[in-house]
């Protein structure tokens, strides 16, 4: 008979957090086994200097990890770990003791006697293992770390707060863009120690991109935009600067400083929109989308009449789809579920969009959204772009599924819809002080009905 395994209880997402005067604090009782060893008192309390819960949770995680590392060493009296792990643990131990980690040379160069005494007094508060003394007095040297290893620290530790609130797919995309710079640099220069990167390496990487951004006439046209090169150079610059700041090593600059390409005169490429006649006669023609799976097909139809981004449509769920109301609508907003969070593009992207035409019929059939594509917006876009291309539903090779969003905006302009309402419904920035709510849902609904397209119910 198979033995049932009890599920591990969920951890409190707000453990060790208290809020006083709007500011969050890291607050926890000293474990009984550490009393008399770690003499910071019965309670450990440190201001996180933020009133934002998500940021406080990320900072709490670092302090919780620092205490765990410190206590493990205090109890064991020693360790056998890699040079990088030992150095990173030294940084954590110093943080747990209330000081920043400094190298041996930096400690020796201190002119502030009070700062040195603070470190010595911290040692007296605990039954100090040698590793703790090393952490406080700079006895662990900065180890050579390959660029790829430094990037792992950058992505998983230094910038952990950046991905708080992102979904798994958003985290993957965030990392993918930055990983490209690392891959390109390693392919060109090699996976050398990040501390050994020279200015010449930075210039070689600049020239690598120069050949793609502004090649000589005999080499043919550019293959990449200036912004693509600047993105890679900027990501390498950010990795270098943040990595050494994280280690407590003072850096006067990076090998990538002042290396960028001018984007002046750059003409922003705008995706072409579908003509309204093409949408009606080709895309909404009965049978045109019949071989698509039902959820993908309905996503397309919802895009036509809401102007939403594909990632916004496929991540809606029953909590933000309102059908049984006087004015049916969808609410596009961040998902703050601790187990399944999701960011949206900007604060202006938060909006309520009334449902008219074919979009209303879509959500009547899918009141819980499109679970097949939830957190899989890349798969949805790839699936739809491939289907449209194969079935000749794109008027030109430059058209993409995202072009439906531009078509919605064009239709609103042609329908005489107020410019500010257009920005609200598109989730675009309004460049003035915000007053009011942007008009009632009923008014928005009545305006959108003016541009709703005729459709055969069979296509839904």
TrEMBL record:
One of its GO terms (biological process) is DNA recombination. InterPro entries: DNA_brk_join_enz, DUF6538, Integrase-like_cat_sf. One of its GO terms (molecular function) is DNA binding. Residues 16-72 form the DUF6538 domain. Coiled coil: none annotated. Keywords: DNA recombination. This is DUF6538 domain-containing protein. It comes from Mesorhizobium tianshanense. The lineage of its organism: Bacteria, Pseudomonadati, Pseudomonadota, Alphaproteobacteria, Hyphomicrobiales.
């Amino acid at each position: 008979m198979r033995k049932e395994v009890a599920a591990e209880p969920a951890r409190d997402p707000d453990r060790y957090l208290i809020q006083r005067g709007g500011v969050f604090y890291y607050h926890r009782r000293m474990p009984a086994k550490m009393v008399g060893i770690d003499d910071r008192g019965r309670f450990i309390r440190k201001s996180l200097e933020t009133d934002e819960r998500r940021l406080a949770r990320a900072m709490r995680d670092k302090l919780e990890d620092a205490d765990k590392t410190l206590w493990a060493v205090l109890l064991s009296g020693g360790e056998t770990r890699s040079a990088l792990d030992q150095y990173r643990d030294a940084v954590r131990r110093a943080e747990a003791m209330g000081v920043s980690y400094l190298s041996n040379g930096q400690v020796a160069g201190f002119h502030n006697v009070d700062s040195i005494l603070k470190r010595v007094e911290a040692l007296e508060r605990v039954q100090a293992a040698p590793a703790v003394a090393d952490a406080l007095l700079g006895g662990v040297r900065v180890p050579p770390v390959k660029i790829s290893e430094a990037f792992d620290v950058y992505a998983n530790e230094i910038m952990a707060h950046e991905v708080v609130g992102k979904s798994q797919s958003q985290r993957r995309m965030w990392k993918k863009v930055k990983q490209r710079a690392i891959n390109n640099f390693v392919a060109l220069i090699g996976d050398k120690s990040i501390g050994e990167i020279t200015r010449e390496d930075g210039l070689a990487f600049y020239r690598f991109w120069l050949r793609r951004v502004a090649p000589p006439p005999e080499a043919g046209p550019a293959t990449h935009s200036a912004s693509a090169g600047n993105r890679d150079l900027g990501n390498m610059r950010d990795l270098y600067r943040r990595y050494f700041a994280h280690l407590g090593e003072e850096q006067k600059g990076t090998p990538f400083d002042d290396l960028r390409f001018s984007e002046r005169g750059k003409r922003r490429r705008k995706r072409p929109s579908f003509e309204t006649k093409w949408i009606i006669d080709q895309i909404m023609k009965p049978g045109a989308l019949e071989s698509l799976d039902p959820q993908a097909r309905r996503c397309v139809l919802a895009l036509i009449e809401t102007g939403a981004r594909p990632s916004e449509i496929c991540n809606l769920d029953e909590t933000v789809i309102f059908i049984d109301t006087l004015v049916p609508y969808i609410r596009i907003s961040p998902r703050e579920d601790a187990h399944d969070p999701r960011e949206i593009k900007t604060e202006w992207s938060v909006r309520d969009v009334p449902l008219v035409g074919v979009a209303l019929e879509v959500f009547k059939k899918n009141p819980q959204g499109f679970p097949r594509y939830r957190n899989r917006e890349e798969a949805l876009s790839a699936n739809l772009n491939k289907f449209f291309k194969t079935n000749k539903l794109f008027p030109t090779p430059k058209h993409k599924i995202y072009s439906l969003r531009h078509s919605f905006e064009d239709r609103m302009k042609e329908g005489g819809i107020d410019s500010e309402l257009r920005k609200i419904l598109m989730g675009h920035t309004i460049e003035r002080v915000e007053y009011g709510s942007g008009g009632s849902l009923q008014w928005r609904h009545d305006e959108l009905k003016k541009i709703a397209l005729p459709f055969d119910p069979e296509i839904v």
